[in-house]
Amino acid sequence: MSMNYEELEQLFYANEIEECIKEGERLLVEQPTDLDTLFLMAVAHHDLAYREGHEETFTSIQAYVIPYLQRILAIEPNNNKALYNILNYTLSNEYVLWQIGRPQKHITTDNRDEFVSYAKRLIDQSESAVYGFDFLVKIYESLGENELLLDTIDQGIAYFRKEFIDNRDLLDKNVSYFWLKKIYVLDYSKLSSGAELVKLIAEQIERYVSSNEQSYLDLAEIAYENQAIDLSLKIMMKLIEGDNTATYIQEGLVKWYHRFEGLINQSYSNPDVLYYQLIIERNYANLLGKEDDFYFKHAGALMKSNPKDYASFHFAGTYLYEQGDCLQAIDLLENANKLQPNACSWRRMVESIFLAHQMISTSIPTFPDKPRDLYNEAVNIANFINELNVADETKLEFRMIELALYQQSYDAFHRYFDKAEFESDTLGDRHNMAMCCNNYAITLAAFSRYAESAEIAQEGLQYSEFPELHHTLVDSLMKGEDYEGANVAIHNFFGVYNEDMVYYYNYIQHRASQIVVHDKLGLSEDIKAEAEELLFEIYGHYNDNPDISDYDFRDFEYAKNLVEGVLYNLYAEEPQEVRLAYYADLAKRFPDEANPQYNLMQIHNEAKNYKEVNKTARLYMENKRSFLLNDFDKAKTIYMIVKSHFLLQQYREGVAMFEEYNQFVGLALEPTEYSLWLSYGIQLQDKLNNRSLVDQYVDQFQAIYDQEGWSYDELSEEVYLAKAHAQYQAGDLKEAHKTLNYVLAFDDHSALAKEYKNSWKKPGLFSKFF
């Protein structure tokens, strides 16, 4: 009994292709019109031969692939899959054989009409028309039928302009692809004059896009051969905006540098040519055989001879900026912006001003730059911010610049795609716009504009699918507490990606966010079990991977904190002994984790078990990665340790830690918390008879109360009693009683104050010896 199609498919995907073919051909004897099996046999024969090389593939296509696909088309003449593949396999194989210098033809003058008809059938199917035109062009190219080729190219371009009128990416890419073929045909066949070629290039070059960087060199050469120097320069200016990583492209750029140099010496003048020369000197000094600072010296000379030239000021300022000479760079970059507003010059000027004067520009111009350039400058300012070692307030001011640049880029992208503004940009496609949306959304979220952030991230996903956009969207929805929206976004993410498709630490964040959403929306039958399952998986991952990088650990910690937060809320109303048992068990099972120790510290503090408070607080700080321990949490934990030392009568240990961290805690805590910290420091210093330090800290304590306008209270009473006691211990009975009188002047004073007042007498002459 023959196998069915599903079994054949399993053999194919298991790479048992010979067996698949054997069984498939047996099945076709019984079911000769089974289209799925016919197609699978064509593919299987191709893939089997492909292992052996391109010439073997040619033979197999002739012997098996074409006949099997022809059998399908005999049954269904317009079968889309068969039409596409019969053309794709044959033309692709022909092209590869031509590339390796062993040309053979599947499509000849004898069978051309048959294959032309296949391409035309695809053109008649709207979903495949683009492929149909492409195949038809390639057939005529292969056969050297130039008039039909040019006619088909024009038909294709007309179709693209109508079909993709609302999609600039597809319009530019498809038109450019066919238009370049037309230029090449007209050039080598001499069917058009040089003047006509130049006119064609000039008309289309602003909308030309191509990842084939060689094509720009070819177009520039055609223009040059026909004395259209300005057009050549325009083409080369587009080329320098690409990747330009290939050696032969860099050599081409340098060739044109020398060519322009000769033309300049012959009085050729164009503002863009100076920019071209300087950027080549800056980026390819080694290929030019020049020193790295040659472009700076050249720019300096041009500033004198061409004082209204933007490029010379821009590049001279750039050199000084990169050398760290910010003071000198500022004026040059400012002049560059006056001559020609430019986001790059302006951004470098802003950074230079800050580095030189610690000042941040609050006036952000509207730039005429194309969308991708604005996006790149926003990324550059973001990188600058990340490297700054300054206060958060300063970083936030810089982030306002970052936000403005992303917004300008976003707006420019909309003008690019919706209103066809700006020249076409190969790298500034919809994916680049989606990246802009992602970064713009992240920056909006930094200003707590979560609804706007989510909206922009959602828009980005319409343009390009990549995991980080999902992450930004979910993060914004979660922080904005839009749990219904987050539930949909998380579901969409898991509908596209599984754990093997994205980075683990990003993936785990989405799972953690889902736990929070299930908790908030009541979507889980057992949220505790669901949360614990993920939390134990996260804890276990860390046990198995203790060397997670700091970069990854931030995402890892965020996911962990989300789940820990859900469980904390579930246990918040439980009796103290239940919470203690739960977190003690977690700490025992996962001794390297910080969160169980943090919760144990809080629970033991409630129970006034200060020995355990001290222990768990220290373990918390030990387990928590330092770069994730914010100043407030660190200060509060140190406060708990100092407090426990005092209450455990470990005065020397308490004083040592107080003195070590007092300045840090003063900066980290608000006045309410810091005054409490000071009260323990004062009492500790009193226990060690350090009167001078007691007086110093009491003055500091009172200054906070005066500044905040707070009234005398129980905390003040503790502090002043400690002050009085330190004075008494130092033998200054008069000052001690003076301080006690201050305390006793308030209603509801402590009985201890009265006791001190009645019992403190002037020490006897010999009391110090007993």
TrEMBL record:
Its domain of life?
Bacteria
Q: Which Gene3D superfamilies match?
A: Tetratricopeptide repeat domain
Q: Which InterPro entries match?
A: TPR-like_helical_dom_sf
Q: Please give the name of this protein.
A: Tetratricopeptide repeat protein
